[in-house]
Amino acid sequence: MGQEFWQPPQRVQSSPLPELTKEVCLRCGTDFPVGSRFCCVCGAERGTESAVGLTAYLDFHRIAKALGLGTSSLIALTVAVVCLGCAIAVGFVYTTSTLLEWQAVQVWRIEWLLAAATALLAGILLRRPQ
Length: 130
Prior knowledge:
Elements lengths: L53 H4 L2 H8 L3 H23 L5 H27 L5
């Protein structure tokens, strides 16, 4: 006999599905419904696209795993790289004509470099133990 609506649901023993049976759409990233040939969100056919695109290279967890860093260390490394880029860009953006302007640009560079060094130190201190 079937489940009565006023009774609590019956637990069904089922084996967990292996990871290989879960498929996601390569175009939009949603899970394919069981037995479907097309994605229910974007309409892409299952298994037609082979290239994932730029998002695969910018996957935060994949980068952290490849570098062997934790999330906080990777964020600190990213901040340090951005600060180094800003320190380099200051020289290209601002042109100086007097000694006072040149000194101001050098102070800005020093501030950006100090921020990068602080972020790198924070990344080292936040690194997970091996």
